[in-house]
Amino acid sequence: PVSLSGRHFLRLLDFSTEEIEYLLKLSKNFKDMKRAGVPHRYLEGKNIVLLFQKTSTRTRCAFEVGAMDLGMGVTYLDPNSSQMGKKESIEDTARVLGRFYDGIEFRGFAQTDVEDLAANAGVPVWNGLTTEWHPTQMLADVLTMQENFNYDLKGRTVVFMADAANNVARSMMVVCAKLGMNFVACAPETNWPDADLVEECRAIAAENGCTVKLTADVTEGCTGADVIYTDVWVSMGEPDEVWAERIKNLEPYRVTKEVMALAKPEAIFLHCLPSFHDTNTTIGAQKAEQFGITEMEVSDEVFESKQSKVFDEAENRMHTIKAVMYATLS
Ligand code: CP
Ligand code: NVA
């Protein structure tokens, strides 16, 4: 039997296929319980703290609601309201918070920061996104795929479009390799995932009977796909100057209805969100005007289509994060 009690959740490379499948199963159970109105205050008396150096809607709220449903107390510390990183090191912060709390969530920049926190906290630390990884996102994405493909994902193909070098794409490549799904990075060579990680994932994929492919050709990449996935072209923490080059390089990889038509008829569209698809967002509108475009990484038409499962995916952040907290704290 799988036990994740006391474990950190920092990147999926540290977890076996069996452990990831266990977390997915647990997530489904929590979702069913929530839907049926069955109380699950299994962690009453425990408290957690959420440290955010970058902004968030889904991840923060998923941890808060998930913790409250489990009966826990929650403290949220925004990017400016603790001493961490300014007056106090991450190591010392970890040693203090570990004495107050039963678990710590961290969203920030360097992966080494969340690892430092984990090495010094003495309680489970969960990675809520770093520049390198976004592991909790993957559980929600895969749960959404399971729900749409009858809980049978082996041999399915996930295509990640556009910035395939970012935290979400790299994490998706890992989870696909671990779960027996083919992964395709469909992007210009400038935005392919780093070669070391590709090599590592190919070795994992070989053990699980699936493949990792990189291509700059949209038709080749998307034909016959089961899942078309994309994310913003510029991630949090990247300098404003990268926008011009990203738009130029990534525009051919926008997810449009022509792209969806290449995929299987039952294919779904996923996006971790937030999305700039709606150029009514402040940044979306500003960048669209500045660079003379009307759509960003995904067309409105695809985003609003029946194939788009992005809000199920967003909801699943909560059920899956609850599963991670429960598995590591119980
Ligand atoms: N997908 C995701 O992590 O969203 P937030 O930035 O809103 O947490
Ligand atoms: N790649 C995006 C994901 C946001 C959830 C970012 O890091 O900003």
What report would you give on this structure?
Belongs to the aspartate/ornithine carbamoyltransferase superfamily. OTCase family. GO terms for molecular function: amino acid binding; ornithine carbamoyltransferase activity. L-ornithine binds at residues 167, 231, 235-236. Its EC number is 2.1.3.3. It holds the Pfam family OTCace. The chain is of the alpha/beta class and 330 residues long. It contains 13 helices and 9 strands. The relative contact order is 0.16. The longest helix has 20 residues, at 17-36. Helices cover 45% and strands 12% of the residues. The strands form 2 sheets. A 5-stranded parallel β-sheet has the order 7-6-5-8-9. The model has no long low-confidence stretch (mean pLDDT 97). Strand 3 (103-107), helix 4 (111-121) and strand 4 form a beta-alpha-beta unit. It has helices at residues 17-36, 58-69, 90-100, 111-121, 135-148, 167-179, 195-207, 218-222, 242-250, 257-262, 282-291, 300-303, 310-329; strands at 47-52, 73-77, 103-107, 125-127, 157-161, 182-186, 212-215, 227-230, 268-271. It has 2 domains: 12-133 and 317-329, Aspartate/ornithine carbamoyltransferase (Rossmann fold); 150-225 and 227-262 and 268-306, Aspartate/ornithine carbamoyltransferase (Rossmann fold). Bound molecules: phosphoric acid mono(formamide)ester and norvaline. Phosphoric acid mono(formamide)ester is lined by residues 56-59, 129, 137, 272-274.
